[in-house]
Amino acid sequence: MWSMHFPIWLFIQHNLTVLEEVDLSFNNFYSPAVPNWLWDVNGLKSLNLEANELSCPFPNKLGNLTLLETLNIAGNNVQGIIPGTMQNMCNLRSLDLSANNIDMDITEVIDRIPNCSWKHLQELNLRYANITGTTLQFVSNLTSLTMFDVSENQLSGPVPVEIGTLTNLTHLYLGSNNLIGVLSEDHFAGLMNLKYIDLSHNNLELVIDLHWVPPFSLDVASFPSCHLGPQFPEWLQWQKSIRYLDISNNGLVGRIPDWFWTSFSEARHLDISMNQLSGDLPLNLEFMSMITLSMRSNLLTGLIPKLPTTVVVLDISMNSLNGFVSDFRAPQLQVAVLFSNSISGAIPTSICEMQQLRILDLSNNLLSKELPDCGRNEPKQRNPSSSNFSRVKTMSSFSLRITTLLLSNNSFSSRFPLFLRQCPSLICLDLTQNRFTGELPGWIGEVMHGLVILRLRSNNFSGHIPVEIMELHDVRILDLSNNNFSGAIPQYVKNMKALTGTATANDSIAYDILFEGYRDKYLASGMGLSNDSFLVVIKGQVLEYRKNILYLMSIDLSCNSLTGEIPDELSSLGGLISLNLSSNLLSGNIPYKIGNLRSLESLDLSKNKLGGEIPQGLSDLTYLSYLNLSYNNLSGRIPSGHQLDTL
Ligand SMILES: *[C@@H]1O[C@H](CO)[C@@H](O)[C@H](O)[C@H]1NC(C)=O
Ligand SMILES: *[C@@H]1O[C@H](CO)[C@@H](O)[C@H](O)[C@H]1NC(C)=O
Ligand SMILES: *[C@@H]1O[C@H](CO)[C@@H](O)[C@H](O)[C@H]1NC(C)=O
Ligand SMILES: *[C@@H]1O[C@H](CO)[C@@H](O)[C@H](O)[C@H]1NC(C)=O
Ligand SMILES: *[C@@H]1O[C@H](CO)[C@@H](O)[C@H](O)[C@H]1NC(C)=O
Ligand SMILES: *[C@@H]1O[C@H](CO)[C@@H](O)[C@H](O)[C@H]1NC(C)=O
Ligand SMILES: *[C@@H]1O[C@H](CO)[C@@H](O)[C@H](O)[C@H]1NC(C)=O
Ligand SMILES: *[C@@H]1O[C@H](CO)[C@@H](O)[C@H](O)[C@H]1NC(C)=O
Ligand SMILES: *[C@@H]1O[C@H](CO)[C@@H](O)[C@H](O)[C@H]1NC(C)=O
Ligand SMILES: *[C@@H]1O[C@H](CO)[C@@H](O)[C@H](O)[C@H]1NC(C)=O
Ligand SMILES: *[C@@H]1O[C@H](CO)[C@@H](O)[C@H](O)[C@H]1NC(C)=O
Ligand SMILES: *[C@@H]1O[C@H](CO)[C@@H](O)[C@H](O)[C@H]1NC(C)=O
């Protein structure tokens, strides 16, 4: 057999009638589509034109390729892609039209596929092709199908029971359509070879006898929102070779059955989120093999178990768990989303060994005491014989990779955690609403130089705001409000380059680390599943922060005991959108150059001891929609003009 790759011209002189396979995938033919000689190669059995940005319809001569067995036109941009002349292509085994804008009713698409080939057609891929239609009844004529993918289209109507007669079917992808109705055991009766199934994002209801024994043994089972509940589907327990299981949002009620953990001990991705599952989790899941585990938004109680060494992404947020097992460990964990539980006690010291951890969200829990001081403990464990151990050395030899640490709304009560000295990669730190006390250390600016978001709001921090905080070049959200900071606002704010609007901060880096990178990395790739099913895993708070990063630049120092004048330099923060210095003891004048804060939408200087005249420059703030200068000693006229007239 001849197989052909570039360069084409080398082959054109040769006798093309012997050519059986042409693979021109991933090139950039613009119109006029494909080289004309191609349609005269009558002996062709396999033609791959995937991903070529083809944009005109295929010529009628395509129908001359009557020996064609494999035709792949996926990932082009051709409307009305299938010519009506294919009626003699009786040998077609595999047809891939996915990721095109076919824009037809599905019965019309099937009619274009030569009826002499129906009985032999094994692979039909119409994923993401803008196909409509209300019936899939035609499948009863495609008896040899092994792979049937119509996901991500606009199909409606029921799934015909005849689909259960496709005994050779291994891949069934119906996800992301508007299919309706009930699927019963009968729909699966003959599918003894089925390995991959995706019914996600439809309006389907799976009504199946709990004690049914399926004829198949699945690898990938995607059943989110399929109304499987209220009882946990017992029939799943026979699916021991499952690698990917998603039964989120199925109205499941009651305890997770014991067999769940053993039947799926080899699974890599498990998602049982958004149900009403209750009861304690097992204390030890080390014998399992999953990479991602999502149990978000259930009614689970008990402790956070010892996890398998393989776990990378864990989401048990929005449950009622109350602590960590004493020997908690998860060496590969990168994303731990545990917010809104009732977790009390201290964060386990084993966190110091989690060298891969990137995102830790423990907001809205009952955690107290101190964070572990990894700098003190960890090296001793590693090198117990060393008695000649300087702290400075410790610092440089050991650090964590955490980028996002969210601890808001707990009961931590220490000084600013030394733990953070081990976190030089931090981008987002939220300690809001705890009982942290004492002064902020100068090393904030040095150690956490990449911080984009720093929220220390509603604690009991005191002392001066350290000058070093101005070394946070990338900071965009600085919220120190509602503490007991005293002294003057530091000068040199110019160093906060992101806030000056000179745009050195790199959105795509922060965006990627906070969120996006995890999507592609751990998505069950090649399984025909939609990205969205994974997105759910780390949505919630992290996603909200992502939005802030892109749009909000703010400084909030309100409700402290700050004294002195508002530094003139503040007016160099041309990117600032919101500035709140309310409820302090600030005196002096409002800086004359305040009009330089061109991006400002909200300015709150109320409840201070500011005096003098209100600077005319305020009227230059064209985006200003909130201004509060009340409860000061300001005098003179309120400036007029521009934006101020509209307030
Ligand atoms: C090729 O197709 C054209 C038009 O569809 C037809 O006229 C011609 O006879 C075909 N040639 C062969 C060799 O099948
Ligand atoms: C699908 O086809 C409709 C026309 O029926 C068109 O308006 C729409 O843009 C197409 N959608 C995509 C995603 O190509
Ligand atoms: C197959 O299609 C041809 C032309 O489209 C039609 O004439 C013929 O009746 C069909 N055969 C069957 C068995 O449906
Ligand atoms: C199956 O094929 C036969 C013969 O071409 C046709 O009459 C029938 O309508 C087809 N059934 C469906 C559901 O398309
Ligand atoms: C199913 O596949 C087997 C083995 O490839 C084949 O022998 C059989 O004919 C196929 N069955 C159908 C209904 O196509
Ligand atoms: C703080 O956490 C508790 C416990 O999870 C929760 O009930 C409460 O709503 C949270 N408060 C805020 C303001 O989020
Ligand atoms: C301590 O460490 C330093 C530098 O590593 C070394 O020069 C010195 O000899 C060590 N002292 C002892 C007592 O081990
Ligand atoms: C805040 O810290 C001070 C000492 O810095 C302490 O006296 C005070 O009790 C603390 N307040 C609260 C509410 O914890
Ligand atoms: C604020 O700090 C001062 C010392 O700077 C202290 O006297 C005062 O008690 C603190 N206030 C609160 C509410 O903790
Ligand atoms: C931001 O970072 C991305 C990824 O590292 C890089 O491709 C891009 O060029 C950077 N942009 C700027 C403005 O530095
Ligand atoms: C998932 O998202 C990535 C990037 O956004 C995209 O390249 C990829 O094709 C998507 N995969 C699926 C199955 O939709
Ligand atoms: C400024 O902070 C004070 C106290 O924290 C708050 O009451 C006020 O709403 C804030 N102003 C704006 C515009 O957010």
Draw up the topology in text.
Elements: E1 3-4, H1 9-12, E2 21-23, E3 46-48, E4 70-72, E5 94-96, H2 106-112, E6 123-125, E7 132-133, E8 147-149, E9 154-157, E10 171-173, E11 178-183, E12 196-198, E13 203-206, E14 220-222, E15 244-246, E16 253-255, H3 258-263, E17 269-271, E18 276-280, E19 292-294, E20 299-301, E21 303-304, E22 313-315, E23 323-324, E24 335-337, E25 344-345, E26 359-361, E27 366-369, H4 374-382, H5 391-397, E28 404-406, E29 411-412, E30 428-430, E31 437-438, H6 443-447, E32 453-455, E33 460-463, E34 477-479, E35 484-487, H7 507-522, H8 532-535, H9 541-551, E36 554-556, E37 561-562, E38 578-580, E39 587-588, E40 602-604, E41 609-610, E42 626-628
Parallel strand pairs: 1-2, 2-3, 3-4, 4-5, 5-6, 6-8, 7-9, 8-10, 9-11, 10-12, 11-13, 12-14, 14-15, 15-17, 16-18, 17-19, 18-20, 19-22, 21-23, 22-24, 24-26, 25-27, 26-28, 27-29, 28-30, 30-32, 31-33, 32-34, 33-35, 34-36, 35-37, 36-38, 38-40, 39-41, 40-42
Helix pairs in contact: 7-9
The structure holds 2-acetamido-2-deoxy-beta-D-glucopyranose (12 copies).
